[in-house]
Amino acid sequence: MPTKGEQSKERILETANRLFYERGFNSTSFQDIAEVSGVPKGNFYFYFKSKGALLETVIEGRLERFREALTGWERDLSTPKERLLRCIDMLVNDRAEIERYGCPMGSLSLEIGKQQPEMKKQAAKIFRLLVDWNENQLRELDVGDQAPALAHRLIARLQGASVLAFVLEDKIRAREEIDDIKAWIEAL
Amino acid sequence: MPTKGEQSKERILETANRLFYERGFNSTSFQDIAEVSGVPKGNFYFYFKSKGALLETVIEGRLERFREALTGWERDLSTPKERLLRCIDMLVNDRAEIERYGCPMGSLSLEIGKQQPEMKKQAAKIFRLLVDWNENQLRELDVGDQAPALAHRLIARLQGASVLAFVLEDKIRAREEIDDIKAWIEAL
DNA sequence: GTCTATAGACGGATAGAC
DNA sequence: GTCTATCCGTCTATAGAC
User: Fold this and answer.
1) Rg of chain B's alpha carbons, rounded to an integer?
2) Which of B128, B163, B167 is the closest to A163 by Cβ?
3) Per the confidence metrics, is the pTM higher than 0.85?
4) How far is CA B28 from CA A115, A185, B15, in A?
5) Where are the extended beta strands (E) located within B31-105?
6) CB < 7 Å to strand C — which of 33-92 in chain A?
7) Which nucleotide lies at the shortest CA–C1' distance from A30?
8) Confidence of residue A3 (pLDDT cuts 50, 70, 90)
9) CATH tag, A62-186
């Protein structure tokens, strides 16, 4: 059973994770996180030495969740093609949030990466993880030495689909684009 | 010849346009714009009634420049395929800035669109303009009723390539992705 | 003298930090 | 809960153009 302190820390992290996504990092104040999480903002500096440190922990949490998801898909899905398609389906499952707030990692990276190179590198780890994992799946298909380029292309297309889904808010076209990405992978 | 007032307004706009791109909207203060432009901060409210109004004018300026560029390409390039390729070449020409700051419109939309729906709509106009223009070019090719979907796909792929170029900072893969987009268009 | 434009000091609010 | 810094935005005194 978690101690009260662990619960507070977890509540801060969960709330920060959500608000950084929904409102953006710079537009989310400690005040906001305190109000939503119920944890007084005075406590924040007991758990995190700065707002940047809080962000860093949020990113680490996201990285960890991605790792778990990817290992889960490797365990539960038997063919590389199924796994690639499952990865694409992230956009289908989260389409409502993506249309409202964009891709969590894409939008965060673009916002903070312009001024905080260190954070940008942290965020890039998640993209590298995703690209490498897809590259491994592609290698199991018969794509020769094209695996790195195709993996990069797949993540790029998912990012592009997310940006346009956010900006244009056109559900039909967004869905159409995802379907085309899936068809492209299925045809490999 | 522009009056002195027009020069000040223009200097504020140019500087804001650049800093909003390089540092992000929320991370750019009037103080910053004043220092870089040389125009004292006290003057800003003579020309713009708020920071949001300044942003709006910046976006309008970008929209206008896009319109001019697109009409220029229609005038100077004779075939639709050349025009589409010229559009893609934006990423090649601006690759250094895109790697450092992302796509100007993509990153701005994602940052401000989460909290300012009105500004998001303004920014979306530029994307609509681009998609529609490319759709017109595609219609002149023999793509049947695929023009809308292909135009959407082209802009999505350009956005995706920009995001990954920014996040991963991998010049080789970024170039490879652009080349693939070009090859795809050329094969149409 | 009037209108446009300038310059900077000032204030309330709110941020992150402790 | 306090502290300091900084944010956006306001106010006003003034300078130059015509």
Assistant:
1) 18
2) B163
3) yes
4) 11, 42, 10
5) none
6) 41-42, 44-45, 49-52
7) C16
8) confident
9) 1.10.357.10
The amino acid at residue B91 is L
**A40 vs A48: CA distance, rounded Å:** 13
Residues ≥6 apart with Cβ < 8 Å to B161: A156, A160, B91, B174, B177, B178, B181
What residues of chain B lie within 8 A of the CB of A106, using their CB?
A: 110, 163, 167
Structure tokens, A69: 């998801």
Q: Cβ(A88)–Cβ(A185) under 8 Å?
A: yes
In this predicted structure, the answer to whether residue B32 has a pLDDT above a threshold of 50 is yes
Sequence-ordered list of residues with C-beta below 8 angstroms from that of B5, at least 6 positions apart, any chain: B47
Residue with tokens 């978690």, as numbered in its chain:
A2
Cβ distance A26 to B22 less than 8 Å, yes or no, reads no
Name the superfamily (CATH) of residues B59-186. Answer: Tetracycline Repressor, domain 2 (1.10.357.10)
Average pLDDT for residues B45-62, to the nearest whole number? Answer: 97
Return the domain boundaries, chain A.
Answer: 1-48, 62-186
State which residue of chain A sits closest to B100, comparing Cα positions: A114
| Residues recorded for chain B | 188
Q: Which fold has domain B1-48?
A: Arc Repressor Mutant, subunit A (1.10.10)
Backbone angles phi, psi at B36, to 5 degrees: -75, -40
Name the percent of chain A lying above pLDDT 90: 95
List all residues 6 or more positions away from A65 whose beta carbon is below 8 Å from its beta carbon: none
